[in-house]
Each structure stands twice: as structure tokens, then as C-alpha cells.
Specification:
The complex is a heterodimer of chains A (1081) and B (461). Chain A contains 37 helices and 39 strands. With 1081 residues, chain A is of the alpha/beta class. In chain A, the strands form 7 sheets. Chain A has a 7-stranded antiparallel beta sheet with strand order 14-13-10-11-12-15-16, sandwiched between helices. Chain A has a 7-stranded mixed beta sheet with strand order 17-18-21-20-19-22-23, with helices on both faces. The longest helix of chain A is centred in the middle third of the chain and has 20 residues, at 458-477. Chain A is globular and about 80 Å long. With 461 residues, chain B is of the alpha/beta class. Chain B has helices at residues 20-34, 82-86, 126-130, 185-192, 202-212, 227-236, 246-249, 287-295, 309-314, 335-342, 353-361, 448-460, and strands spanning 91-96, 101-106, 111-120, 138-142, 166-168, 196-198, 215-221, 255-257, 277-281, 299-303, 319-322, 348-351, 366-382, 388-399, 409-414, 420-425, 430-433. A 10-stranded mixed beta sheet of chain B has the order 8-10-9-11-12-17-16-15-13-14, sandwiched between helices. In chain B, α10 (335-342) crosses α11 (353-361). The chains are: A alpha/beta (1081), B alpha/beta (461). The interface between A and B is large, with 79 and 69 residues.
């Protein structure tokens, strides 16, 4: 069946900002999907507010709208671009929800836009749990007893029908937000309210819990001719009760017989047909009783998902690409399997290896949040590893996590647990459970006990037990035994693990095992277990006899990826890596990608010339570089992970292309960096490095409070705090320093009320161009990743920005940067201070690339390979419009945590808004970030004393915009002195009714609450949590509130006009009469 | 639990004589325990197609229990995983006819297997594969990473024993974990005298077979042989070409079959109705074929391959199924003649070998595929409807479409290599299906074949 010919242009919806439960897997799917559609000669219109994605690179689609992914915006774009069709199945839950809203509002039928991939009916059936359950029941598939409730009264009755333990699942939420497990009536009564509130439609499914059952997932594809293929079976090591995104998972399923597997396969196919997924991919989840085989269908997602990204990377089968083709009406047998290049896609991949996925968590960022895993997803990223056995894959995955310790080494916290506490750590799912299991086995607990507590299948526990016993045996046999080394490598132990066990340096182990013949060889991921020849060089390492690395035609350059997504090192670095691949190709090199993150574009089978799906450890990188005889490695695109490896790689003889490891050290080492600053005659906040607490107290006294304290060599402001009084210093020390005492602690004089600036620049060692100068909207004190920023600067005088540019040029030259550098500066009283410089691609590079239309990372990669900026004819970046970047926070996932931004980064993603004016751009960004600014109503103000002088102007502006004002007594009094009247309301501690009561009653449309001091006042926490939980827009700084006021003013002037990046570019070109370009591509 | 080994167990096959005492000791222990039976030594089995032991229900069960006290190195013990990898003397090697030798570890005692080396890429269902009689004469290489993890059970037997000459896997789980497991795979294969080797780079082996095509080979477990000795054994080894292996695996008596397909927990058995009687010519039939015929409502009678057309028709069947089986279709004696005599008289369905024999009976020819189709993921297109099925496959030979007479239509093709997957000769009521609609292991996409066939039979009654 040829593809349908009634479609000429398709609108693809992206997933918006990265959030927990909706991460960069949708960049991967969007990129594949868009490419597949364009191959068919279709015009592709893309909507995604996330600038840190590869899919929003302007050359990927015909029209790229970095605009909020909302129904209103999508409708405007569909109309403007005259799209024939809408493809919402590649953009996660966000895109599906928008599609349903567009259909409900009649927009699709009015504009004659066809919905591809999934019908509205299918989406509703899959999403509405009651309908889903009914449909499954009609199809004869087992489901769990459950009831949907929309009121507290109905909820009471539901408990009787369903029984306990029960699970509460709010409808239409991301990654299981608001989902809760309850074991008794009391808990139920408490949880049901929150669950009802969490659902945008106020609907909750109350369902019998199957906690402890085994969980399986099948990734299924179906075409118009009703051919169904299961791309991958995934088994969760963690039993039901833990969100699959938080579970350790393996592929293929390992504890099912064929008969049991085929039941699930048949059920998955029936499920797709019943729900009405005509074409495309879906994910079906099953629970299986471990002792009786009783099973039930849990849920299905009629779209590509995190699991399908994992399945894609695990099998090599490009699910999103094929889903896009199927949506156009192709059949599976008409699509070629891109991996083999010869066989059809109507085929089920066969794996001859094991894949293990391990999630990565960020609980340390959210003090106060209990690190217990449940049915609401908490992990921020994940790693995947491919190994010949479960053991090898598991050990590789653990290495990939970059936890700063070798393999299964006991964590101090877990090793210190007494028997009872350890049992609880094994029983209750938590980020350290694997290590608790290991520790229990190390202490000699038997497999049955550990399996009984953890509800892990005994098979997995046994295999881990085998590794634990092997560790002991390796240690006993000692370093001289060459056969042991070889056997241990085959089991999957890393050189660093063996170094720990044998008490030898890692490098010695490496030399010895190589001499003993344990040389890493690489096999292909080929979808077919070797049955057909594979055309794609998608490789993983191991210690077999076979090596399938293909011949190379051009010199190879290894590019180090960024590993698992974590807070502070997210998708933006993957976007830089993928752009850099293009640059390396441009420079005539073969780009060899190493990465271990299954969600990313960089680990797509065709992103680089070769892909090594390997941990980003010294060991694995050295082996790849050696096998490829690579010219060198580039380490500046993947964030802090490769940067940390760079020096050790160089010491091992690997040429680091671009900025040298010594130059990296020059920037990273505070003392050396201070020398540079002094040498250049630049200004820096006074700073001291200390080791002990009493030293710290003295240093802080010398510098003068407030001070900014942080451990050196950190990522994302980990452990960074502003300390206002000596008394707070001891507490900080206890919290942050004692846990990791190996690094010195840096104490900076904190510049209060300074304007922070982020600058990205590109240097070839001789010339330096400034990519962009970003002004932070919030004042210094909030981590740069967590503050909104605007490009170009709206408040700084021209001579200040000129000075900033001069300083960054000086710095780049003096540091010897070849490639990208990011500098953070602060301006106070007209003086410019240098805060820090990172000689690598930064979080803001993709944003600046979108805002200037210049592929900076790609250019940087060429510079790393020796190109001159002058030859590339690159000039300073010129913004195409006013661009605002706004962060997105995961506070709704962590009950009880104060959602106050601070010096430690906690945002998971960001959005971009671009417009002609600041107000419009900020409004777009707010809309994209889900900050629903009110156009009228009441605004509640509660500002810290230090902010009160500026509060008057703010209040006046809000009043001018027609808002009624409500304020705490102190704030109201301050405003009153300046002649602005605000209705007064109690703080939470002052009696009732208080501010939160009014929030609950819907009397407040926006909250402006600023905090002073490092330890936020309990009243403030209650207000901020109240706003968060009742979905009231909340602003934490006065500067942010001014910006919000501008945005509201812009919104009141009329609807915002969406404009594609391509349109911005042609407009900018038209404005430049001499035809000069900011940069050549 | 499944029947124990029913054929003469070639004790000597397990080694080179030095284990005999131990094994006999084990046997006598077993005999004492059972209070009956006796050890019979069969001929050394050096390869497929020669001096095959007549198998049949008549043979007295002889069970060899692996001597537990021997301290065999086992793969993936639940204690340290290192010792098995370090166990030098317990090596295994596979020598292929093209001179390539692969190394791994032996899981049982000393043993030797000889036959055609084939690989199967299916990730589930090792027990079904091992007990599929079609693997007689073949050393089976499984590519999936872990084998043995779900143990063995009675329902998953595809015949009364394991037939593969030997098993080579990347990793073998000694201790199973599955709610249906009734024992470990290794114990079961030990009992049945099937050599098991693990720790092989099976991917390297697969790529070799992909390049060179199917090759005969010898699997030597637990003994270091000199190159000369090995070469001699490899010279002796041969593939299945020219071998009629059906009689070595098939039943020798007419049997009525009544077992329905396995029911998943919670699944209700379908009502059995007095459906048409289907006679199945057993060339090495898998239980799943019989089960699914019953599931489709048929009464099933299984007849040995030497049953003539008249004897079959005397049973008054409404249809005849010619089953799958091992070996070279061109070498199978008698059955094509029987089929020829049945053509046009009753609806006939040939599966796998039965399909090839049907083609021969219709005047067609078969040829050998480069390395065969063995797996659970082959796409097949039904030419009449255009539907694509993902199928379970296990064959080394295929029907040459050019050789077929005009009245025979190619009804299905394999989408990976275009080979014939089904033929129909409507005028004589016959159809052949190359793949395994009964799955076991594999996807159920083509299960409808049985219902369709039984429906055709019913129409004739």
C-alpha cells in the first residue's frame, strides 16, 4: 500500500521542556520522525518550546516554531502554515493532550487537519482509565478491579469495591504525578484529595494494587494492514509498585517461558486493536504474579515513550522513524529495516545480548524529600548498557551512572546500616536498593531472603549474588592471577572495580589485563542476532572473540557524550554533541560517538558515523580511542562528564582536540583562575579556599557576609549556598562538606543585588567571537541554570556589555581556549566581576544558537579540528529578536520541598520565547513553562524586608494593570507608606483565614513571594507550597515579578503571534542590506 | 513430568570410556531407586543419519543421572561466577567442517556430538526448540544471551525428549526461576544424554555460518583432543543432506491424541465439539501441532510415516496433516508416495517437512538454503490477502518455486529472502506451509491456519 497522497504538510508537536517523566526521549523521537517525514517530500512544521533540542535546529524542519506547546498556539500555527495533518504521537503526553484539546475545540475539523498516528478516540480510550478497562474487558483481556471517581463521595464507595492495597491514579498526568499507594482507609481518605487535585480533569482511578507482581512491558508497532510486531520485551527488575521509569529494567525479558511471553504478545496486539491504534507504536504494560502466572494488563500508551526510546536503543529498531512512516499509510513490510538495509521492518528484533537500564536520581537536590520510590516517577535520567550477559550489562550500567565510586563498591551509608535498617533498605524501593541488595548478599543473607524482601525475581538476585561471590574470589586470588583477570573482565568488572578489589591502580590493572589477553572487542547491535548483515556501525564492547568494527575511510575523532541526564547536565549538552558531530563531518572527520544515555539523539543509530554505546569511563573511552586509532577526542560538548575525563585521557596519551586539559584545569582550579584574573587586571569577588570549618569562619569574616560557599569541582551548583551569618556556616558544613570531604570548599564574597550575565564565546586560540551575552532576570544568588534570562540584555548600558565582551575575549585568549567557553559575570554599581569560566559548551549554547541562527557547537567542532574563525567567516552572534529562556522545576514531584530557587540548580529543563519585545518574549516563555499568568484578578504580595523599597514600584505597576492587591501585614504597611493600598491578609502563622486559605478558595490569581536569608522562613514555605499545589502562578523575586508584569501587559495587548525560526532568520537577513552574515554555516 | 528418555541411550556418547564407571554407578543407583529397568548401551552416535537408534514407546526408559559429586564446573552458579570461567580442563570445542574451531566450556561430563550446526535466534522457548524432533541430526546453537533461566516443565515439551545432537549457548543458568519450572534444563539434558556447552562466542559462530552456510561439525565436551583427532572426527561428521531422519524420531504406532493447547492462568477451555477427524502423518511431529488441531476442534489420530494411503483412508479422516520433521526432504522415502495417493481425496496440509514432501509429491523439487531459517521472527506474506505474519521457522530446505507444476500456486513468501513459505494446489485440496503455524516457540500470528484447515475438513465431512 503506497502512502496516502492527501497530505503535503504535517505539523509535528514536540514535548516542550524537559520534566521528570518527559525527558529528552522526545527529542530523539521528534528528530527521527521529522527526518522520516521529510524523506517523503513532506513539508514539516515543528512546534516545540524547548530550545535545547536537536529537533528545533532550524535545518531539521521546514518551519520550526520555538513556541509554547499549547492548543491555542498550535491552532494558530496550523492555520498560519495551512497544515494538512497533525502528528502528536512523537511529543509525549504534552502533545497528545494538545491534540485532544484541538479536536475537542473543533479546531482540527474547522481547519481540515487530519490527526495522524492515533485517533482522538484511541487517545481517549488509552488515557481514560475507565474506558480503557472497559475496552480491555470487552476484548477478554484481564484487568485489575478498579473504579473511576470524580468526587470525594464517589471515592468513599470505590474503596469498598476495589479493596486494599489500592493505587490512586489521577487521569491525564505526566509520569504518574499524584499517583499514590494506600494500604488502609485512613491513608486512602488522605491521599484521594491530592489525587483528585492532581488530575487536570479532577478524575482519579482507584485500582487494586498488584504491588510485588512482576512487571513487563512490550513495545509494539502496528500498521494499517494489521501487522503487529513486538519490537522489544522489557522486564522490570523492581516489581510492580515502582514506576517503570524508576525501575532497573532488562531486555529481553528473562524470566518468561515462550508460552507466557506469547500470552503477553497476543494481549498486546489485541490491546492495540481494541484501543484503536491504527498505526504506529505503543507501549503496553503487564503485571504477572510471580507464583501463579496470573496476569493483567496495566496500561498502554498510544505513542512513543521513554520505554520505546529504550527499546529503540536496545534493539537498534528505530521506532519513532517507523511510527512516522506508518502514520503516512505505509505498511511495515514496505519499510526497510534501516539497520540491515535489506530486510523489511515487519520483523521482530532478536537480541543476542542483554540490555540493562538503571535510572539516575537527584534526591540530594531536594532536601526534605524522602528518597522512597513509588508509582510517581522521581528519576531525572537513565543509563543503558549492553553486555553479553546480565552481569556484564549490569556492571556496565552501574559504571555509566558516574556515581563517583567503582561498580558495586559499598556506599558508606549502606555499609553502615544495621541488619534491620538494611532489611528495610532492601525491602523499600529507593535509589540505593541495588547497593543494599549487594550489601545484604555480602553479609551472607541468602538469595531467598533478599528476593523475598526486595521482590526481585530470584534469578536476578542469584546473578547479583554470583557477582558478589566473584568479587570476594577475585580479591582472594590476588593481582598475580592472569586467568582471574581475564575471567573477571568477561564477567563485566571494570578496571576500576578490579583495582579496588585487588588494591592496585586502575592503570596497572588495565595494562595487566591487556597483557593477559583481555582486550575489548566490539560487536554490532543489528536487530537480528547476526542472521543478516548489518549496515550500521552501532557497537558495544565486550570480551568475546569477535570484533565487528568496520573499516574506516577518514580520520576518526571521538566525541564524548554527556551520559545520563541529571540536574545541571541535561539535554542541552546532547544537543551540543549532535551539532558537533555535524561540525566534525564538515571538518572531514568521521565522528565516533560514545554515550550511554538511551534517551538521546546522540545515541541514535545514524546520528554519528559510528556509535559506541558504552559507559563514559576512562577505561571504555581509552579502549574505543585505541580501537579506532582515533586522531583525538573532543571533550567540550558533553558538559562536565567528559571535561572531568579529559585530563586523565590526556595523561594516558589521548590527544584532546580543542581546549587543552591544562587550560581546562586553569579555568577549573580556583587558585590558578584567580591568578589569571589578577594577571589580566580583572575584578573577581574576593574568594578563599578552605578545608576546615574554623578556617571557613575566619575566611568568611575576612570576606564579609553574606558569602557564597560551595565545594570545588561541582556540577549544577551542587552544595552551593549563600550564607548570611556565621551561625549558618556550621550547619552547612555538616550538611554538605562532611559527606564529601575530599575537595576544598570555596568561599566567595556574595554580590547581593548584582545583575548576573552569562556569556558564550568561541575561540580558535587567536580570534574570539562572542556568541551571545545573556542577562539574568533574577538577581545574583540564583543558580544560572535556574534563573530566567534574556538575550540581548534589556537593562545593561551598552558600555557595560562592551566591557563584558572585552573581558570574555581577554579570558578566552589568556586561558588558551580552542572551542567554546562560557563565562559568568556579575555587574554591580557599573563594575563587572568575573564569577567563573567554563572552557566548554554550556547549557545556554543551544538557546543562543536558536536566538542567533548560528550553529555554534558545530562551528566549535570545526575549530577543534583546526579550522580558523576567519576561514569560517564567523562574527559575533546577533540576536534575531528578543529571546527569553525560562527554567522549569520538578517541585511538584517532591512533596514538602521548598520551591524556592537558590544557588543550587534544581530545574530540569527550560523553554524559550522569542518576540519583538521583552514583554511578549517573557509571556511566551511563561506560557511554555506552564506559568499561567493572570490577566486580571488579585495578586498576593509578600516580600522580604530588603525587597520592600522596590515593592512599591512593582505594586504600582500591578495596580496600573488593573489587579487588586493583597499583602501580608508587613508588605501592606510598606506599600501603605508609599500610598498604595493593599488588602491585608494573615501569614500562615498569624491565624486564620490566612493567605493559603485564600489560595485554596481561588481568591488569589498570582503569588509574589520573595525570601530573605538562606534559610527560608516557614511561612514563606507554606505560601510557596500552597501556590504550587493549587497551581497558582508564583514568582520568587521582585525582578521576576517586574518581568511578569511586562508579560501580562503584553498579553493584554492581544494574542501573541507565533513565528518560526526560519521566518526570524529571513527577517534578519532582510534587515541586513549589505548581505553580511553573522556566520557562515 | 515428561517422559524420560525413551530411546536406547548411547552411554558411550557421553564420553570416551573413562566416565563409564561413574555413570554406571549412577545408573545402578537409579535402578535401585526405581527397582526396575536396565542399562542398555547403544551404538556410539557419531552423526546424523547413520545407525540411528530406532526410537519408540517400546524402548525401556534408561535414565542417566548426572553424578552430582563430580564437582562439574557449572555455568552461572548462584555462587561465584568465576570458577566456571576458570575451569580449564572442562573445556568444550566445536570444530566446523571448514576448519574453524570455537571454544567454550562443557556443562556436563565428557561428551561428543556430531551433526549439522544450525543457529536459532529466538529469545524464548529453548525447551520447545530442544524437544522439536526436526533438530535431529543437528547441533543447536542458541543466540539468546541466557538459556536455562526458566527451567523446564511438562507442558513445554514438543515431543517426548530432546532431539538436538548437542546444545551450544552463550550462558547457561543452572538454577531456573519461573512459576512453571519443574526442573533445571541442564539436569534434563544430562538425563537425556545431550551434550551441553556454554561460554561460546555464539555471535562469532553465527557470522561464520552466515558466511559459509550450514556446516557439519563436531562438539567435543570435557576432553582436549589433538588436532588430528579432531580433524578425524570432523571428517566423519556430516550434515543432513541425503538423510531420511523421519523414522528415527517418529512414532511407530497409531495413537489417538486428545490434549488441547496449554491454558494460561484464568483462561477458560474452549468447548470441545465432535469435530472432524484429522490424521497426522508423524514425520517427527511437534506436540503443538497436535494440540492446536485439537484446539481447532478436530479429533486427532497420529500415524507413523510408513502408514500407506489406504491405511490412512481406512481411518476415515476428514483431512490429513503431514507433519514437520528432521532431515532432507528429498531423501524421505514413502511419504511423498502416500501423499500422492491421498491428493484430491481429502484436504491435506503439509507443515514444514510435510510441506516440502507435498511439493515433492506434486512434482516439485527442494533445495538447501544457505543456512536455513531458524527463529521466531520471520515475516511471511500471504499472497492472497496481503497480510503479513511474524512466524516461527525451523528449516534448512525450501521448495524451489520454479520446479512446481502450473497447478500449484505459491501462496506465501518469506519477506526477508523471497523463499517459498506456502503452496496451494486447490484442485487436489492440498496446501503446504513451510513455517510453523503452531509456533511453540514463537508468535501466534498464523494459528488461524489450523482453524481454517479444520473448517475445510468439516466442509468435507
Amino acid at each position: 500500500m503506497p502512502r496516502r497522497d492527501d497530505i503535503r504538510s504535517v505539523c509535528v508537536l514536540g514535548a516542550g521542556p524537559i520534566r521528570i517523566g518527559q525527558a529528552c526521549e522526545f527529542d530523539y523521537s521528534g528528530v527521527q520522525g521529522v527526518q522520516a517525514l521529510r524523506e517523503e517530500g513532506l513539508r514539516v512544521v515543528l512546534v516545540n518550546s524547548n530550545p535545547a533540542t536537536i529537533m528545533t535546529d532550524p535545518e531539521r524542519a521546514d518551519a520550526t516554531y520555538v513556541e509554547p506547546v499549547t492548543a491555542e498556539v498550535a491552532a494558530a500555527i496550523l492555520e498560519k502554515e495551512k497544515c494538512d495533518a497533525l502528528l502528536p504521537t512523537l511529543g509525549g503526553q504534552t502533545a497528545l493532550n494538545v491534540a485532544v484539546q484541538l479536536a475537542n475545540a473543533g479546531v482540527l475539523s474547522r481547519l481540515g487537519v487530519r490527526l495522524l498516528g492515533a485517533s482522538v478516540d484511541a487517545i481517549r480510550t488509552a488515557e481514560d482509565r475507565e474506558r480503557f478497562r472497559e475496552a480491555m474487558r470487552r476484548a477478554g483481556l484481564p484487568v485489575l478491579p478498579s473504579l473511576t471517581v470524580t468526587s470525594l463521595a464517589a471515592a468513599d464507595k470505590a474503596a469498598d469495591t476495589v479493596g486494599f492495597p489500592a493505587i490512586l491514579r489521577p487521569s491525564f498526568t505526566l509520569g504518574g504525578t499524584g499517583t499514590a499507594m494506600v494500604y488502609n482507609r485512613e491513608e486512602y481518605a488522605k491521599a484521594i484529595k491530592g489525587a483528585l487535585a492532581a488530575s487536570p480533569v479532577g478524575e482519579v482511578l482507584v485500582e487494586r494494587s498488584v504491588e510485588g507482581w512482576k512487571e513487563f512491558e512490550l513495545e509494539v508497532m502496528r500498521d494499517v494492514a494489521d501487522t503487529v510486531v513486538v519490537v522489544c520485551s522489557i522486564e522490570n527488575v523492581d516489581a510492580m509498585g515502582v514506576h517503570t521509569g524508576d525501575s532497573i529494567t532488562v531486555a529481553p525479558a528473562l524470566t518468561l517461558t515462550d508460552k507466557e511471553y506469547q500470552i503477553l504478545r497476543d494481549a498486546a496486539a489485541t490491546c492495540l486493536k481494541t484501543v484503536g491504534v491504527e498505526t504506529g507504536g505503543a507501549n503496553v504494560q503487564f503485571a504477572v504474579h510471580p507464583d501463579t502466572g496470573e496476569w493483567a494488563i496495566i496500561e498502554m500508551n498510544p505513542r512513543v515513550s521513554r520505554s520505546s526510546a529504550l527499546a529503540s536503543k536496545a534493539t537498534g529498531f528505530p521506532i519513532a522513524r517507523i511510527a512516522a512512516k506508518l502514520a503516512l499509510g505505509y505498511r511495515l513490510d514496505e519499510i526497510t529495516n534501516a539497520i540491515t538495509g535489506s530486510t523489511p521492518a515487519s520483523f521482530e528484533p532478536a537480541l543476542d545480548y542483554v540490555v540493562v537500564k538503571v535510572p539516575r536520581f537527584a534526591f540530594e537536590k531536594f532536601p526534605g524529600a524522602e528518597d522512597v520510590l513509588g508509582t510517581s516517577m522521581k528519576s531525572v535520567g537513565e543509563v543503558m548498557a549492553i553486555g553479553a550477559t546480565f552481569e556484564e550489562a549490569l556492571l556496565k550500567a552501574v559504571r555509566s551512572l558516574e556515581l563517583g565510586r567503582a561498580g558495586l563498591a559499598p556506599t558508606p551509608a549502606v555499609a553502615a546500616l544495621d541488619e534491620e535498617a538494611l532489611a528495610s533498605r532492601v525491602r523499600v524501593a529507593n535509589p540505593d536498593r541495588l547497593w543494599a541488595v549487594v550489601e545484604a548478599l555480602r553479609r551472607g543473607w541468602d538469595v531467598a531472603r533478599v528476593s523475598g524482601l526486595s521482590r526481585w525475581d530470584p534469578w536476578f538476585v542469584r546473578r547479583v549474588a554470583g557477582l558478589v561471590a566473584a568479587e570476594q574470589e577475585i580479591a582472594e586470588r590476588g593481582p598475580a592471577d592472569r586467568a582471574t583477570l581475564v575471567a573477571a573482565k568477561r564477567l563485566g568488572f571494570g578496571d576500576a572495580d578490579l583495582g579496588r578489589l585487588l588494591e592496585q591502580p586502575e592503570n596497572t590493572v588495565r595494562e595487566r589485563r591487556r597483557e593477559a589477553g583481555a582486550v575489548r572487542r566490539y560487536r554490532k547491535v543489528d536487530t537480528c542476532a547476526g542472521e543478516f548483515a548489518a549496515a550500521t556501525p552501532y557497537l558495544y564492547g565486550g570480551f568475546g572473540t569477535l570484533d565487528e568494527v568496520p573499516e574506516r575511510r577518514r580520520p576518526a575523532v571521538v566525541i564524548l557524550g554527556s551520559g545520563p541526564v541529571r540536574i545541571g547536565q541535561g539535554i542541552e549538552f546532547d544537543a551540543c554533541c549532535v551539532q558537533a558531530i555535524a561540525g566534525l563531518r564538515e571538518a572531514g572527520r568521521e565522528a565516533v560517538m560514545i554515550n550511554c544515555n538511551p534517551e538521546t539523539v546522540s545515541t541514535d543509530w545514524d546520528a554519528a558515523d559510528r556509535l559506541y554505546f558504552e559507559p563514559l569511563t576512562l577505561e571504555e573511552v581509552l579502549d574505543v580511542v585505541a580501537r579506532e586509532e582515533a586522531e583525538g577526542a573532543v571533550a567540550q560538548f558533553g558538559g562536565q562528564t567528559p571535561l572531568k575525563l579529559a585530563r586523565r585521557l590526556a595523561a594516558a596519551g589521548v590527544r584532546i582536540l580543542g581546549t587543552s586539559p591544562d587550560a581546562i584545569d586553569l579555568a577549573e582550579d580556583r587558585e590558578r583562575f584567580s591568578e589569571v584574573i589578577n594577571r589580566l587586571g580583572l575584578r573577581q569577588p574576593a574568594c578563599e579556599a578552605v578545608v576546615a570549618l574554623d578556617e571557613a569562619k575566619k575566611a568568611a569574616a575576612r570576606l564579609g557576609y553574606p558569602v557564597l560557599v560551595r565545594p570545588s569541582y561541582v556540577l549544577g551548583g551542587r552544595g552551593m549556598e549563600v550564607v548570611y551569618r556565621e551561625g549558618e556556616l556550621a550547619g552547612y558544613w555538616k550538611r554538605e562538606v562532611l559527606a564529601a570531604p575530599e575537595h576544598p570548599v570555596l568561599i566567595d564574597r556574595f554580590l547581593e543585588r548584582a545583575v548576573e550575565i552569562d556569556v558564550d564565546a568561541l575561540s580558535d586560540g587567536r580570534d574570539v567571537v562572542i556568541c551571545g551575552v545573556l542577562e539574568h532576570i533574577e538577581e545574583a544568588g540564583i543558580h544560572s541554570g535556574d534563573s530566567s534570562c534574556v538575550f540581548p540584555s534589556v537593562s545593561l548600558p551598552l558600555e557595560v556589555t562592551a566591557e563584558v565582551r572585552r573581558i570574555v575575549r581577554l579570558l578566552a585568549r589568556e586561558l588558551g581556549v580552542v572551542g567554546l567557553i562560557n563565562a559568568q559575570l556579575a555587574v554591580r554599581d557599573g563594575l563587572v566581576y568575573v564569577l567563573e569560566a567554563n572552557p566548554r559548551a554550556s547549557r545556554t549554547v543551544p538557546f543562543i544558537s536558536k536566538a542567533t541562527g548560528v550553529p555554534w557547537a558545530s562551528l566549535a567542532a570545526q575549530v577543534c579540528c583546526g579550522a580558523r574563525l576567519s576561514d569560517l567567516s564567523v562574527a559575533d552572534g546577533v540576536p534575531l529578536g528578543v529571546a527569553v529562556k525560562m527554567p522549569v522545576f520538578p517541585f511538584d514531584r517532591f512533596p514538602g520541598v521548598d520551591p524556592l530557587p537558590g544557588p543550587e540548580m534544581r530545574s530540569t529543563g527550560e523553554v524559550m520565547g522569542m518576540a519583538e519585545t521583552f514583554g511578549e518574549a517573557y509571556a511566551k516563555a511563561a506560557l511554555g513553562a506552564g506559568l499561567a499568568l493572570p490577566l486580571k484578578g488579585t495578586i498576593f504580595l509578600s516580600v522580604a524586608d530588603a525587597d520592600k523599597p522596590r515593592a512599591t514600584a512593582l505594586a504600582a505597576r500591578l495596580e496600573e494593570l488593573g489587579f487588586a492587591l493583597l499583602a501580608t501585614h508587613g508588605t501592606a504597611a510598606a506599600l501603605g507608606r508609599d500610598g498604595i493600598s493593599a488588602r491585608q491578609v494573615h501569614k500562615v502563622s498569624e491565624g486564620r483565614p490566612h493567605a493559603v486559605d485564600l489560595m485554596v478558595n481561588g481568591e488569589i490569581q498570582m503569588v509574589i513571594n520573595t525570601a530573605s536569608g538562606s534559610r527560608a522562613h516557614r511561612d514563606g514555605v507554606a505560601i510557596r507550597r500552597g501556590a504550587l499545589e493549587h497551581r497558582i502562578p508564583y514568582v520568587a523575586t521582585v525582578a521576576g515579578a517586574f518581568a511578569a508584569a511586562e508579560a501580562i501587559a503584553a498579553l493584554r495587548r492581544g494574542a501573541l503571534e507565533p513565528r518560526s525560526l526560519q521566518a526570524w532568520q529571513s527577517r534578519a537577513a532582510a534587515l541586513r542590506p549589505n548581505g553580511s552574515r553573522a556566520a557562515s554555516k | 513430568m515428561a517422559e524420560r528418555s525413551r530411546r536406547h541411550l548411547p552411554v558411550a556418547r557421553r564420553g570416551f570410556g573413562d566416565l563409564a564407571e561413574v555413570e554406571q554407578g549412577a545408573n545402578s543407583a537409579r535402578r535401585r531407586a526405581e527397582g526396575a529397568g536396565g542399562s542398555r548401551k547403544g551404538p556410539v552416535r557419531q552423526g546424523a543419519g547413520r545407525a540411528m537408534d530406532p526410537a519408540g514407546p517400546a524402548a525401556t526408559p534408561v535414565v542417566i543421572v548426572a553424578p552430582r559429586g563430580m564437582g562439574y564446573p557449572r555455568a552461572s552458579m548462584d555462587r561465584s561466577l568465576l570458577p566456571p570461567l576458570l575451569a580449564g580442563p572442562r573445556r568444550a570445542c566445536l570444530a566446523l567442517a571448514d576448519g574453524t574451531v570455537f571454544h567454550g566450556y562443557a556443562s556436563g561430563g565428557e561428551a561428543l556430538a556430531s551433526g549439522e550446526v544450525v543457529f536459532n535466534t529466538s529469545m524464548f522457548g529453548y525447551q520447545e526448540m530442544l524437544t522439536d524432533p526436526s533438530y535431529r541430526g543437528q547441533i543447536l546453537v542458541l543466540t539468546t544471551a541466557h538459556v536455562g533461566n526458566v527451567g523446564v516443565n511438562a507442558e513445554d515439551q514438543e515431543s517426548r525428549r530432546a532431539w538436538a545432537e548437542g546444545l551450544i549457548v552463550p550462558d547457561l543458568s543452572a538454577i531456573p526461576s519461573n512459576w512453571r519450572a519443574q526442573g533445571g534444563l541442564l539436569e534434563r539434558l544430562d538425563e537425556q544424554g545431550v551434550p551441553v556447552a556454554w561460554g561460546f562466542d555464539t555471535r562469532a559462530l553465527v557470522l561464520r555460518l552466515r558466511e559459509a552456510g550450514s556446516l557439519p561439525g563436531v562438539l567435543v565436551c570435557g576432553k582436549e583432543l589433538s588436532r588430528t583427532e579432531l580433524d578425524a572426527l570432523v571428517r566423519e561428521a556430516h550434515g543432513t543432506d541425503g538423510c531420511d531422519l523421519t523414522r528415527a524420531v517418529a512414532r511407530t504406532e497409531v495413537v489417538t491424541w486428545g490434549t488441547a493447547p496449554w491454558l494460561a492462568p484464568g483462561e477458560q477451555p474452549r468447548k470441545a465439539n465432535g469435530g472432524p477427524l484429522v490424521a497426522v502423518v508423524d514425520c517427527g511431529v511437534k506436540h503443538s501441532i497436535l494440540r492446536h488441531l485439537v484446539g481447532a476442534g478436530a479429533g486427532v489420530v497420529v500415524v507413523p510415516p510408513d502408514t500407506g494411503a489406504a491405511a490412512i483412508l481406512a481411518l476415515k479422516p476428514a483431512g490429513v496433516v503431514v507433519s514437520n520433521g528432521p532431515g532432507d526432504p528429498a531423501a524421505v522415502a514413502g511419504v511423498p508416495q502416500t501423499i500422492r495417493e491421498l491428493l484430491g481425496k481429502v484436504p491435506l496440509l503439509g507443515i514444514c517437512l510435510g510441506h516440502q514432501l507435498l511439493a515433492v509429491a506434486l512434482g516439485g523439487l527442494t533445495y538447501k538454503l544457505r543456512f536455513g531459517h531458524h527463529g521466531a521472527n520471520h515475516p511471511v506474506r500471504d499472497m492472497a490477502t496481503g497480510s503479513v505474519w511474524i512466524t516461527s521457522q525451523n528449516h534448512n530446505y525450501a521448495v524451489d518455486p520454479e520446479s512446481l507444476p502450473e497447478r500449484v500456486r505459491v501462496s506465501m513468501v518469506n519477506l526477508t529472502d523471497g523463499s517459498v513459505e506456502g503452496i496451494v494446489a486447490e484442485d487436489v485440496l492440498a496446501e503446504g506451509i513451510q513455517f510453523h503455524p503452531e509456533a511453540g516457540p514463537g508468535p501466534h500470528d498464523a494459528l488461524g491456519v489450523f482453524a481454517r484447515f479444520v473448517w475445510r475438513c468439516r466442509g468435507r465431512r
